[in-house]
Structure formats: structure tokens, C-alpha cells
Design brief:
Elements lengths: L9 E9 L8 H12 L3 E7 L13 E12 L1 H8 L6 E3 L5 H8 L19 E2 L3 H17 L3 H10 L4 H6 L3 H32 L3 E7 L7 H12 L4 E3 L17 E6 L5 E8 L11 E5 L19 E6 L5 E3 L1
Parallel strand pairs: 7-12
Antiparallel strand pairs: 1-3, 1-4, 2-3, 2-5, 6-10, 6-11, 8-9, 8-11
Helix pairs in contact: 5-7
Length: about 325
């Protein structure tokens, strides 16, 4: 009789399950079972409640627990001890399997940088997870910094590392030599993210409101834009006129803008449906804020009142929360 093939085993395993299908009354009971029934050398877990699908819909809340054992364990055995199905446990392989698994919990791996970034203190572990992650990220930087700046810049562009992490590993002279390159690549990274966002918005047929604030230098256009974005509670970034999607509009004459205010009910009230404004960016520096928010006729949430006149128009998505100064 031929021997039955042995089940695959590994020292690094990830348990994943939706909260609605969890074989325990709550997440705390799951962690207690992991400690008492499995006894992993190290484990760390987190609940993902902000994940999104490609179509923009929410992913069901679920939990991830990365476990590292002294001896290889099979997924079926681990699942059985937790009272769950074998498919709920996944083997992680590779020399950096443990580090990658712990990093994925907060979406700190290169392939998960575009997903919601969970805070490190949201993880429950039987070791100092925050310190562990700081060490992992430092190792990633050190391993690339031994090569040349091109490797670091490539990592910055693809999102493997962020700008602050890159700069923190450079000496003063290295940063001085590479500063313009870093700024250019980081600007390109923001542009790539904006283009990806715009593509998703266009595919889904979603719209945004573009608000144009204009006035002479020093009038406080940028400060007003920042205050508006902050009060809306949305993420934003400030870009120079040479990096904004409006940079080619010098001398153009918009014909369908509206000078507007918000009525008490939160609806848009038009003061003038046709305002023709010729603006030259050399003498007048309009400030553009693209507010990343769906415009819905059913929305009942009024925007904060802005103590100055401005023009607004609805348009297809262009770029996420950009301000031009």
C-alpha cells in the first residue's frame, strides 16, 4: 500500500477569519485559545475593519493572527485546535516569512502599501510589536542603503518605503546631493497615486467639486484652502503650480463656473450661473482645492461656511485633494 502523503507543515502560519464566522464569542477568546491550545513562540493579531475592495465597497470585518512556532505545524492541525476549517490557516514561506507576516498585519509590506495603513498599536501580540516593526523597517532601509541611491529612489516610487524613512537613513552630505532627486521622485509618487485614484473615480462614474479661490499674493488663499480641507476631515496635500493638474490652464477662460455659498440646508445656492474669469497665473495665483468627496443629491451634511466668495463647479475626478499656490 502506498504511503499517504504527509500534510505540509511550516513554522510560520497566518490565521484569517471574518468576525461573523469566528468560532468564538469574541476576539479576546480567540487569543486565549491561541495561547492555551497552540502555544506559539510568538504571535500577533489585528482586526481589519477598514479594508476596501477594488470596486470601492467595504470588505467584511475580519481578523488576522500571524503565528511563529518552534516546530513545524500543519494548517489542518492548527485549524482543528481552533475549531475552524483548514482554509482559515495559511502557510507563509520564505526566509523572511515571519517578518513579512508581522508586517502585513498593518499593511506595511510592499504589496500592501496601497491599502489602509493600520496603526501599529492596534496589534495585539505576546511581544513588543511596535519595537519589532521599527527594527524590520530599519533593516529594510539598511539593506537597500548599502547599494546606491537609485535603489532607494525606486523603493520610494513603488511605495516600499516612505520619504521620511528614506531621509532618516542618509547622512547630511548624502541628503544634500540627493535632495532634488528625492523631491522629484516623491512628487512623481504622489502623481501616480493621484492618477490611480482618478482612474478609479472615472471608472465608477463618481464626481468631485472643484473650488477656485483667487486673489493677490498674500491674501491667505493657501491658509483658507488648508482650513477648509481640515474642517472637512479629508486628507490633502499642497503642491506647487508646476506640479498641479491645472498647470496648463494659464490664460484660459472658464465659462461654467459658479460663485456660490452654502444655504442653511446645505444645498448649493448660485449667485451667478455664468461667471467668465480670465486669469493669468503670473499676476493672479488662483488656488485650487479638489475636495475628494462624492457629490450626492441625497447628502444632508452641510459644508463649513467659508468667509469669502469663491467659485465652484462639478466635474469628473481630476486629482485627490490638491491645492495649487
Amino acid at each position: 500500500m502506498p504511503k499517504r502523503a504527509s500534510a505540509p507543515k511550516s513554522r510560520t502560519l497566518m490565521y484569517t477569519q471574518q468576525l461573523s464566522h469566528l468560532p468564538f464569542s469574541d476576539v479576546d477568546s480567540l487569543y486565549e485559545a491561541i495561547e492555551s491550545r497552540l502555544g506559539p513562540k510568538r504571535y500577533a493579531g489585528i482586526m481589519h475593519d477598514h479594508d476596501m475592495k477594488d470596486n470601492g465597497s467595504s470588505v467584511a470585518d475580519h481578523v488576522h493572527v500571524m503565528m511563529s512556532f518552534s516546530n513545524p505545524r500543519s494548517p489542518s492541525n492548527v485549524a482543528k485546535l481552533l475549531g475552524d476549517k483548514p482554509q482559515s490557516v495559511e502557510i507563509w514561506t520564505g526566509r523572511a516569512a515571519e517578518k513579512n507576516g508581522f508586517s502585513y498585519l498593518c499593511h506595511r509590506t510592499a504589496g500592501a502599501r496601497g491599502k489602509f495603513q493600520y496603526p501599529l498599536d492596534a496589534v495585539r501580540a505576546n511581544f513588543d510589536y511596535v519595537k519589532e516593526m521599527e527594527g524590520i523597517e530599519a533593516d529594510v532601509i539598511r539593506s537597500t542603503s548599502h547599494s546606491n541611491i537609485k535603489v532607494l529612489l525606486d523603493a520610494l516610487l513603488d511605495g516600499s518605503i516612505d520619504r521620511e524613512a528614506l531621509v532618516s537613513q542618509l547622512s547630511g552630505s548624502e541628503f544634500a546631493r540627493a535632495r532634488k532627486q528625492i523631491d522629484d521622485v516623491y512628487a512623481r509618487r504622489l502623481q501616480v497615486q493621484a492618477e490611480e485614484w482618478r482612474k478609479r473615480m472615472l471608472e465608477e462614474g463618481r464626481e468631485i467639486t472643484t473650488i477656485w479661490i483667487f486673489g493677490p499674493p498674500g491674501a491667505g488663499k493657501t491658509s483658507l484652502a488648508k482650513k477648509y480641507a481640515e474642517e472637512r476631515g479629508t486628507g490633502y496635500f499642497v503642491s506647487g503650480s508646476s506640479a498641479t493638474s491645472s498647470r496648463d490652464m494659464r490664460g484660459s477662460t472658464p465659462s461654467s463656473s459658479m460663485s456660490c455659498d452654502r444655504s442653511p440646508s446645505g444645498t448649493l445656492t448660485s449667485f451667478a450661473s455664468q461667471i467668465r474669469m480670465r486669469w493669468n497665473m503670473r499676476s493672479w495665483l488662483p488656488l485650487a482645492i479638489s475636495i475628494r468627496r462624492l457629490q450626492s443629491s441625497s447628502s444632508s451634511s452641510p459644508a463649513p461656511t467659508i468667509p469669502c466668495s469663491f467659485t465652484a463647479s462639478r466635474s469628473a475626478a481630476r486629482a485627490p485633494c490638491a491645492a495649487m499656490t
